[in-house]
Amino acid sequence: MTGSVRLPLLFLDVDGPLIPFGAEPEQYRTSGTGLDLPEADANPLLARISPEHGPKLAALPCEVVWATTWMDDANECIAPLIGLPKLAVVVWPEPSDIDEQDERNGLHWKTRALVEWAAGRPFVWVDDELTDTDRAWVASHHPGRAMLHRVDARLGLTDGDYEALGLWLRQPAGVAEGDGQPCMDTARHQESGGPAE
Length: 197
Known about the structure:
Elements: E1 9-12, H1 53-59, E2 63-66, H2 73-82, E3 88-89, H3 97-105, H4 111-118, E4 123-127, H5 132-141, E5 146-150, H6 159-169
Parallel strand pairs: 1-2, 1-4, 2-3, 4-5
């Protein structure tokens, strides 16, 4: 009897990666939801979510987990828009004194919780607020492979982002493609949110 290999996790933020913001409103393509969703009238930005995200996420060799302040609302409002089933949701811990210290040190408030949730399992974290501080902390506190992929919030997830995620997820464990070094992030983005040169 062979044991099944667990897929890497993909921790997915909503605001920024799926709902782009920050550019002029006329730059965003909108689509009707076509669904009777509880948040559809209350949140007009839902119309910015491209239904193309669902098939692209489903094609990645990973287990997608909501890592967003939307919490369970992501399953109620976002998943139906893009054709995904209900996904696991990271439940954020109550704020603590250590969060204040992390904030002073520049560590994202999600970082510790995601490393704990992953429990050593390889993961990708897709967010628009990632920094090198988060990458360094994950590298020193997470024993598995990890890719922290920053998305430009003005654009949301692009074909280039999906390509980078797919390449990383399909790599053999432990090495970045082509360099023989431990893999942390093969698709680093500048702090401005644009692709690194």
